[in-house]
């Protein structure tokens, strides 16, 4: 594939399989009390045996009382995981206290269209009724731009909802309800998190609202690729890659599974996420990951699932959430302008293979250390900073760049007009340059 010089987009790679997965019935059995083993901090994902799936089916959970075809589930199916109804007693523990704080601010979202239906979760942002969730919840994984949305608040009341804005590049969306006496979620800071901190997921896994699970923050800065949830547009063929998106292959490629329907072929997007072992399942999408004080620190977005091909996805102790510091910025853009802006560096890059120490210095490896520049767009921030073809970018500010995907994700997190120091290698010597990011107008 030819290099695409419109963004810091990875190149020379092929799209992963995007075969859909069936929606899972909300009442399908799980094993109460059984915890998945904690993921050790710093461990990478299992190579080709692990997939990442968007959580709105495994992505959007099937609507309660129906399987993927709309049939009622077998009455002999055992109940799902216990949920923490706000009216029930909550334990006087750290997790219980955090859950009691956050639960009134968590909602369940239903999306219905001619292409299908599903449910996800969300967090109330303010008393005006703005709710933060995932784009793939609102668009049913990219199938529709006009799903009928309803929201059930923690007290059981159901409200009609409208879309304020969606941002496929971050997989974040804001919707709105007109409701009285709303309790906005308390905001934390993902920048203050440390590996090992408490992480509590709240939402409606498998369609079961007000469900609370707990774990820890396993990793602070993981880059994952998921299929774009951009809804089809009129007068658009829908073929090929969306703007600013890359395609990918390799040992740790991730797939976004859909609720029983084909993915709109919009390509992939790269996002930086927190990794947690708190149990996250279909239907948790868009819901909050909170800290030990019940403050929002992440927006649940995807899970890893063992195996490849079609099949159901569920918790194996490797879940991902979009950091709240980034999510807040995108949400603010969506509320104020109806769309979000993203920074661009203006280079076309590929992963730089890591240098192998000892043994055969020419040994092939799947590991990479940086993003090699193949093309620099004229008058772009990269060009103005003096970057050239052949440079290897290794950091943006304090954030390490290990491959082309992480460069894409890190740059997009910046606001347009932000300045940052770029660290790069030229002919083996480390150099630094200041860049001022411009807006990605290719969106």
From TrEMBL:
Signal peptide feature range? none
Q: Could you tell me the keywords of this UniProt record? A: Hydrolase, Protease
Could you tell me the EC number(s) of this protein? 3.4.21.-
Q: What is this protein called?
A: Putative serine protease PepD
Query: Which Pfam families does the entry link to?
Result: PDZ_2, Trypsin_2
What the entry lists under Gene3D superfamilies is as follows: 2.30.42.10, Trypsin-like serine proteases
Which family does the UniProt entry place this protein in?
A: Belongs to the peptidase S1C family.
Cite the residue spans of the region called Disordered.
Answer: 1-40, 65-90, 227-257
Output the superkingdom of the source species.
Bacteria
What is this enzyme's class at the first EC digit?
hydrolase
Q: Where is the composition biased (Low complexity)?
A: 1-26, 65-87
Q: Name one GO molecular function term.
A: serine-type endopeptidase activity
| PROSITE patterns with a match to the protein in the record | PDZ
Keyword Protease listed? The answer is: yes
**GO BP terms in the entry:** proteolysis
Domain PDZ: from-to ranges: 334-428
């Amino acid at each position: 594939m030819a290099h695409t010089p419109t963004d810091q987009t990875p190149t020379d790679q092929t799209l992963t399989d995007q075969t859909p997965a069936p929606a899972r019935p909300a009442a399908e059995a799980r094993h109460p009390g059984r915890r998945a083993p904690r993921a050790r901090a710093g461990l990478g994902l299992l190579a080709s045996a692990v997939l990442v799936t968007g959580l709105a089916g495994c992505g959007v959970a099937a609507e309660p009382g129906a399987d993927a075809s709309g049939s009622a589930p077998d009455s002999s199916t055992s109940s799902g995981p216990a949920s923490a109804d706000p009216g029930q007693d909550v334990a006087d523990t750290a997790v219980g206290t955090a859950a009691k704080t956050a639960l009134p601010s968590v909602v369940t979202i239903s999306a219905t269209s001619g292409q299908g239906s599903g449910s996800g979760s969300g967090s109330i942002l303010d008393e005006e009724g703005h709710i933060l969730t995932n784009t793939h919840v609102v668009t049913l994984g990219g199938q529709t731009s006009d799903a009928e949305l309803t929201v059930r608040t923690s007290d059981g009341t159901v409200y009609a909802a409208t879309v304020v804005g969606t941002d496929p590049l971050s997989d974040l969306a804001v919707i709105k309800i007109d409701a009285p006496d709303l309790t906005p979620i308390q905001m934390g800071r993902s920048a203050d998190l440390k590996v090992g901190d408490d992480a509590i997921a709240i939402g409606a896994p498998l369609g079961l609202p007000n469900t609370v699970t707990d774990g820890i923050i396993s990793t602070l800065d993981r880059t994952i690729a998921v299929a774009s949830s951009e809804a089809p547009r009129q007068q658009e063929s829908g073929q090929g890659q969306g703007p600013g998106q890359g395609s990918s292959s390799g040992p740790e490629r991730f797939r976004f599974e859909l609720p029983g329907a084909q993915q709109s072929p919009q390509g992939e997007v790269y996002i930086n996420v927190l990794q947690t072992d708190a149990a996250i399942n279909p239907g948790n999408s868009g819901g909050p990951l909170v800290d030990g004080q019940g403050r929002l620190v992440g927006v649940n977005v995807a899970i890893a699932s063992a195996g490849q091909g079609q099949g159901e996805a569920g918790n194996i102790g490797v879940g991902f959430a979009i950091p709240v510091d980034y999510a807040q910025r995108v949400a603010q853009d969506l509320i104020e302008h109806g769309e979000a802006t993203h920074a661009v560096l203006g280079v076309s890059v590929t992963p730089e293979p890591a240098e192998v120490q000892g043994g055969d210095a020419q040994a092939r490896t799947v590991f990479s250390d940086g993003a090699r520049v193949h093309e620099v767009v004229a008058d772009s921030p990269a060009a103005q900073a003096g970057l050239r073809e052949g440079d290897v970018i290794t950091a943006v500010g304090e954030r390490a760049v290990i491959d082309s995907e992480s460069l894409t994700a890190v740059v997009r997190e910046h606001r347009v007009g932000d300045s940052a120091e770029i660290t790069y290698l030229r002919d083996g010597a480390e150099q630094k340059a200041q860049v001022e990011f411009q807006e990605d107008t290719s969106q």
